[in-house]
Amino acid sequence: MQTTQIAKKITDKFGPAITLSVPEGKHPRVHCLDKDWRALAEFLRNDPELEFDWLGCLTAVDYIADNQLCAVYDFYSMRHKHWFAVKVMTDRANPHIHTVMDIWPAADWHEREAFDMMGIIFDGHTDMRRILLPEDWVGYPLRKDYVFPREYHGIPGTYETDWQQQSDYPK
Known about the structure:
By secondary structure, the protein is an alpha/beta fold. The protein contains 3 helices and 9 strands; from the N terminus they run αββαββββαβββ. The longest helix is centred in the first third of the chain and has 13 residues, at 34-46.
C-alpha cells in the first residue's frame, strides 16, 4: 500500500480519533491522542492489509509550547514492505500512554527510555523504571525546560570541571 492509502484506511476506521494526517513527505504519519492509541495500535498490527509487524523506532518529542509530549512510533510491515508512523500526543503535565510492548516486544526498552528521558508513563508496562539514569535521578533530561543539576551525589557537572575553569575557556 502507498502511504496515502494507509492514512486513508486509518482515518476511515478511526475518524475523529485521528487529529492530523500527513500521508506524504519524508515522514508519513497520523497523529492521535493517548486515549485512542491502544485501539489504533491493535488495528495496525492485526489488519491484514497493514500488518505492521515490526516496530523500527520509538522516540519522544517535547512540544513545550503546546504543553504536550509525543511518542513517535515508526512501523514496518515485513509482508507488505511498507513504512508508516504514528505520533501519540499526551498532556505534558500528566503524560500517560498505553504500552504496546505486548504487541511489539521491541517497545519494552524503547518505552523505558522515553520514560527515563521525557517522563512519559506507559500504562500497563511490566517494568516501568529508568533504563539510562540512576533510579534517584530527578527530572527528565530531554524535556526542553529541564535544568541540569550542578552536581549529583557530590560529583560536579561537566561545566564545573577544572579544564573549563581555565582562563582560555569561554564562560
